[in-house]
Structures are given as C-alpha cells and as structure tokens.
Amino acid sequence: MNTRTIKHFLALADTLHFGRASEECNISISALSRNIRQLEEEVGVALFNRDNRMVALTLEGEKFLAYAREASSQWNLIRHELTDNSDQLHGEISLYCSVTASYSFLFDLLNRFRIAHPGIEIKLHTGDPEHAVSRILDGKEDITIAAKPANVAHGLVFKHITVSPLLFIAPAEQHVPNVPTHPPTTAKQWANVPMILSEGGVSRNRVDTWFRKLDITPTIYAQVTGNEAIVSMVSLGFGIGVVPKIVLDNSPLVDRIKVLDVQPELEPYDIGLFTLKKSLKNPMVNAFWSLMSEENKQA
User: Domain 1-83, what fold?
Assistant: First the structure.
C-alpha cells in the first residue's frame, strides 16, 4: 500500500464513479480499476461493490474509508514537517461551498490566500449548502463555507464571515390565483399558499419553526436542493419560497421575483467557515483559517 493508492481509493469513495475519479487522479479508468483491485487484495476484502451501473462502498470499505482519510491527513502533515525547511507551506486543502458563496466570498479570499501562500493548492468543490457541514464531519473536506446551525456538532469550529437575512420571496407578477405577490395576512391564507422550500438544512429548519410557532400547516408544493432552484421556481410563479438575501444578490432572476415584508422575520443566516478542531493542527488549514481571522480584525 502507498499514499498514491490511498488517494485513488479516496477519489473513488467520494465520487463513486470510476470515470470522475480517474479524471480527478489524472489516470486511466483501467489503471484506477487495477489499483483498487490491488488494494483490495492487499487488505484481503472487497472495498467496493460495482457492476455496470453503480459503484458503492461495502461495509468493510466504509471502515477503511475512515482509516484512509486519517492516513492521508497524517501523511501530509509529516511530509511537511520532514521536508520543509522554509517558512513556505506546500500541499493542498479541500474547500466546499455553494455556488453563491463562491461568487460572494471566495474571489477576494482566495486571491489573498494565493498571494500569502502560493505553494498551497485549493481543491474547490461546490454544491448544496445543506451538505456542507456533513462533508466536514465525514472527512470529505478540510473547510466549508455554510450557515451556522442552531447547534454546532462536537468537534467542529466556526469562524464568522457575514450575516445574511433569510427572506420570503414571491413572483414579481401573479401567474396563478393561489400564488400571491403580496404576503398573506392570515394563518388560513398562509396554509393555502404553495411553498417551495429546501429539502433540509438551516433554512428549512427555520421555516418549519416559523410555521410551527404560528400554528400553520403549510402546503408544500416542492422541496428542492439548492437555493438557486428555489429562486427559479418562484420566478416562474409556482409558489412562495424562502432564500438567504445573499442568493438574490447574485441571482440573474432577481428582477422576476419580489421580497415579501413578512413578520415576524426569520432568523438570519450567520455565514462562516467550518472545520474540525483537530484539522487546525494542519498548518495549511490553519493558514487559511488565520487569513480569515486577519480579515475580521481589519473589518
């Protein structure tokens, strides 16, 4: 077993797709498949179930995944300690955020980070913010940008970046009778409005709490992944949605929706960086974290 094989295993475990994993590792699919088979022979068990349609981790593969992530992290740390005799950091860290967050925060942050630490490579992954914290807890990423939940999981640390209001939005023009362009005034009216909400995450939890406190059982028209999809469906007149203001600030559809003045207001998003407390021992992760700290001090 070697570190390259571990890297190949982690790529396949994260993507569960030989084609995408081979591209990430810059090797052919056949070479990746051969390396995975050799790894399985070495550990003595099958780590993946695969056929022509799917790839999935076995129970043994799930156990090996935890070891592989820790081994990869420790290897990067010891390699840096043994080989680096300068103040310049070298290596890579992974960062996950939504597409909106990449527009809003990362350009300036990554620009300054590259100047300060040109030897560190950033592997950026974008996707649904609902999955950001779980990707940290699962060891898939070193750092994520996400909204702070009501309860931060044990072992996680959070660094504040900004606050964004959480807004009710409606279509700018009324397309169907039961989707108003103004906020409902009674619980009965709210209950009859089709709602377009996130499948889960901080936004959904706060909307559910809001309705529960007002003793309203909402009509859920659609549950979607990603705030951008909510804006799109609302702009087409399918219902009323809830998104953070930061999403609207970056949306090409902002002229097709309107923000509703709804009281009481939803609790705003506290957006920031997440990482595992133990990950701050990694000098590259700590360098990124410290850069954010310096920006907060300057602000």
Answer: Arc Repressor Mutant, subunit A (1.10.10)
Over its length of 299 residues, how does the chain's per-residue pLDDT go in tens digits?
688 899 899 999 988 999 989 988 889 999 999 999 999 999 999 999 988 788 999 999 999 998 888 888 777 777 766 666 556 777 788 899 888 888 888 888 888 888 888 888 888 888 888 888 888 988 888 999 999 988 888 899 999 999 999 999 999 998 888 898 899 999 999 999 999 999 988 999 999 999 999 999 999 999 998 889 999 999 999 999 999 999 998 899 999 999 999 999 999 999 999 999 988 988 889 889 988 765 554 44
> Among 293, 260, 288, which Cα is nearest to 143's?
288
For residues 131 and 97, give the distance between their C-alpha atoms in angstroms, rounded to a whole number.
9
Tokens standing for residue 275: 């990482």
* Cis ω before 129 (30° cut-off from 0): no
Burial category of 115 from C-beta neighbours within 10 Å (exposed 0-12, middle 13-18, buried 19 and up): exposed
CATH number at 90-163+268-299? 3.40.190.10
Q: Are strands 143-147 and 91-97 parallel, antiparallel or unpaired?
A: parallel
Q: For residues 156 and 1, what is the distance between their CA atoms, to the nearest angstrom? A: 31
Q: What residues does CATH 3.40.190.10 cover in the chain?
A: 90-163+268-299, 166-267
For the chain, give every residue range classified as CATH 1.10.10.10.
1-83
Record the pTM: 0.71
According to CATH, the topology of domain 166-267 is: D-Maltodextrin-Binding Protein; domain 2 (3.40.190)
